[in-house]
Amino acid sequence: MEEKDKNEAEEDEILVKKAQESPEAYEALYKKYGKRVYNYLWYRAGRVKEVAEDLAQETFVKAYQKLPNFRLRAYSYFSYLKTIAHNTLVKYYKKPKTVSLEELGDIAEESAPDKSETKEASELLWQAIEKLPEAEKNIVLLKYREGRSVKEIAKLAQKSENAVKLVLSRARKKLAGITELKP
């Protein structure tokens, strides 16, 4: 172990012990690692500030809840936080996202052949998207609801760009009987 890592682990051990004795002392760990945890999540959450902030907060809440039983090993507290952050991020991406019809309105408006059919097309589109397998649904929503590029989606979904294009193509074919999505 390098001297810097050893010093950080020793400093963390002191901070953790203080936080276990007094909950107010946990703030020192938050101040020390808050920005690093946020940055870790920000890059992996598609550089979306609100998502990164929420996930960072959830990471620290989980770490705080586990604090009474936590025992520091030969690594820094940041390594522990990063593990929690990673698991929180994975859970975030696995969680099904719900979307209102209003959010899908833009897709329906672009794809409806006649403005008078927009509401009906929107409802049909929503029902069809809901029936897609979870992985396809998430990729379709990232592309058409959030307007993300294939490259961004590939990074978020941890897939190749070609795999994302294939998923989008298959999903569009499945949805084609109801309405056409423009890439």
Explain this structure.
- Belongs to the sigma-70 factor family. ECF subfamily.
- Residues 29-95 form the RNA polymerase sigma-70 region domain.
- Keywords: DNA-binding, Sigma factor, Transcription, Transcription regulation.
- This is RNA polymerase sigma factor.
- The chain is mainly α.
- The protein folds into 2 domains: 3-94, RNA polymerase sigma factor, region 2, helix turn helix motif (Rna Polymerase Sigma Factor, Chain: A); 101-175, Arc Repressor Mutant, subunit A, CATH 1.10.10.
- Helices cover 73% and strands 0% of the residues.
- It contains 9 helices and no strands.
- α2 (26-44) crosses α3 (49-65) and α2 (26-44) packs across α4.
- Mean pLDDT is 79; it is low at 107-116 and 179-183.
In short:
The protein is mainly alpha-helical and 183 residues long. The protein is built from nine helices and no strands. Helices cover 73% and strands 0% of the residues.
